[in-house]
Every structure is written in C-alpha cells, then in structure tokens.
Amino acid sequence: MAMNKLTERNRAAERHWSLSRRHFLRGLGAGIALPTLPSLLPSWSFAAPAATSAAKGAVTSAVTATPRRMVFVTIPNGVHQTNWWPKGEGTGFNLGPTMEPLAALKDQIQVISGLDHINATAGKDGAGDHARASASLLTGCRAKKTAGADIYLGPSVDQVAAQHVGHLTRFPSLELTCDNVRTSGGCDSGYSCAYQFNIAWRSATTPVPPEPNPRLVFERLFGAGTPEERKANLARRQVRDRSILDFVREDARALAKKLDAKDSRKLEEYLTSVREIEARIARFEQMGDLPNPNVKAPEGVPDQFEGRMQVMYDMIALAFETDSTRIATLILAHDGSNRPFPEIDIARGHHDLSHHQGNQDNLKQIAEIDRHYMSFFAKFLEKLAAMKDIDGNSVLHNSMIVYACGNADGNRHSHDNLPVILAGAGGGGLQTGRFHKVDSMPMSNMYVEMLQHMGVQGIDRFGDSDDRRAAV
Of the given ranges (21-35, 266-280, 356-370), which has the lowest mean pLDDT? Predict the structure, then answer.
C-alpha cells in the first residue's frame, strides 16, 4: 500500500513538472506552446507547497529526463521489392533506390526485414487484404470481418503508449491523415471502413479517427479555449487577416527579454516556422476544399496532396518541438488507395499499378511512387535531426519513428517480410545505421521493445507477439 501511494505521488509530481515546465504565449483567445528554452529553466516552479521528499525526488528525476517520442507513418499498397531492400546487411549495407533520399540520414535509421503480420492474412476470412493490412498494422490483431457496427480489433501500440505517458502532455496523442476519414459502412470485401481508414485504436471497439484538415490540426495545437471559442477566435483572425502570432506579440516581446542570445534565436526561428505553416494552410484554403484522394483531380486544377503531406509532417514536428504530444500517427493514404500522382506524371491509380503482374512499366511507376513518398519522409527526418532537444541531442535521436506498410507486395497481397524502417535512436537505446534482418517474427515483437524503450512498465506482450526479441 505504501509503495502504491509513493508511485502515485511520483506520477503526480512528474505530471506536475511536465505541465508546469511548458511556457505559453497568450493573448486574445490564442495560446502558443513554446519549445524548450534552457535559459528559462531556473524559473520553472511548482505549485504544490508541501511536496514530500519522494515527490521531490520524482520531480528532480523528471527534470533530468528527456522525453521519448513515437511516430507511426503508413504508406499503402506494398512496395517495389527489388528497389526497396538494401544490399548487404548489418552496418555494411547500401541503400536501395527507394531509400536514396535517406542517404544523409543512413546512420540514424535501421531498415528491418523479417517482420510479419499473420493476422492480416486471409486465414478463414477470405478477401479483404487491404482492410486487414491497415487494421493489423499497429494492433497485431485480427479484425472481425463485419461491415456493421460490431467491429472488433484491439488496441494499437500508439494508444497503449498514450495511456501510459499521454498524461504528461497537453494531448495524449495526435492522429493525422492525408486521406479521407471513414468510420462506418462497408469498404473492402465485407470489412468495415473503420478498419481500412484508421490505424489508431483506443480499444477493440473504438478507433481513433485521424484529422484530415491541417487548419483544424493547427487550431488544435495552437488555439485556446473551448472548441466554440477557438472557432470564433479563428473567424475573428480570418476576418482581420491576421496571424495567431499577432495576438501574442506583447507576450513574446516580454519573454524575449528573459532569454539569452541562443534561446532568443531559437524563439524567433520557432515563431517564424509557425507563421510560415499558418500562411501555407491559408493558401491551401484559398484554393478551395482539398480534393478527394480517391478521385482524380480535374485537368488544370493543381493537386494538393504533396502540400498536405508536407504540412502534416510539419504539424508533428511542431507538436514535438513544443512537447504538445509525444505520440503521433500519420496515414499518407489508406491501403487500397487508388489515387494517381500527376505531380510525378503518373496518371494511373496506385492500387491498379500495384497489381503489376510483373509488367516492367507498372513496376517502374510503383518504384517512382515509393520514392516520392520517401522523399517527404526524408524531409521530416531532416527537420527532426536539426531540432535540438533538452539534453542537447536532436529530437530525432530521442524518437522512434516507424515507416511501414501492412502489405509487402501489392501484387500478391503478402503480409510477411513487411517493408519497415525504424528511424531515431529512442534516446540511445536503439541500434541505428544498419540493415537488421530478423528471423520471420511478429511485428508486434518490435512494438513490445518500443514500448519498453518508451518507459511503459510491465509490458512483455502486445498483439500477437511471442517470446522472441526483435533486438531493435
């Protein structure tokens, strides 16, 4: 009993430290969370007037701890196998053509082969590989085959982590998509759309729908008050054609006076990035609603998919920089997506191409799509690599970022030897700079180890994991 009370005090102290250490700029219904500014460290204080020695010890430990972060990014329809996999193994590997955009980050990633999702295979359920691929990707569970309301799957790894560390940030997790959002109805061969369009699941029956609108993501991260208040404040700012930063200008000036030169530059760079993203979103809105990713855009109308990918990646980077959340998921497109890629001169749908039947022209276009997705992922990693964390290392170093697909080869709808990249060192616990080959095991084994690196206590099973270690 005494130990339980001590643990609760420690958790309370850690949460109090995590919340009180954040600084905000405020003004006229707007609030902006700020990145860590070391020159403000002496001013961080605690409201509790009579903390116990044990609680104080937890606070001291928390101050010296650096947050660990998780991101899960998913692409659809499998990959061009030959171009995806590196040559060689261990640290003596060469990136394949698909991963060439990651060349400058080679020592900060590990490519992993041999990870499977057996619960995405047909089994006795028949067709529906795309729905099962999305459903099992972060859960390791088999989706109940139904197009009705009686969906049943299992919690996803991101939500398990959020349940343990989400209380330390303003938002337990952030779920984003560059695609449609569907939580009901039938989609793939008798499976509910909830399986195919969601990868985050709070419980076996509750998906966490991702947000497709970058403006709403921005307002969620940087707005203030109730949803109704945020909506009204946004309308007022839009009418006045002013940035959210205009409403916190005086607070920013006052804060700048407390900072040393290095933090002052960091603050200015951060506020500049906020304004640039805000301006970019405004430009998207002026062009009208974002097109449906499942429908080819009319001729002559610019496709906005690239812009949405970039801004969603930037939203995650800003959320991490401000410690607004430590856990995020991003669906670039749902498995089975048939959008074309006019931006790289590919007019046919991705899903149609993925059933390549060995046709070399089809394979060439698949490889181009794979590399196109990879180029945006590389930019995201570069941004995190350039972002300094509280311990002096990069945010990328302190993160674990999974880039994967629940299908391996779209032509065969295979779910073994899945394409997986794990970027970041998780604060130093992961082995980066290598091509890591494991002996055909559940992808859930990797998730168990990631949860342990995240500081989640008592986790030795997840999804369909077994006793073997992925040794990431």
Answer: 21-35
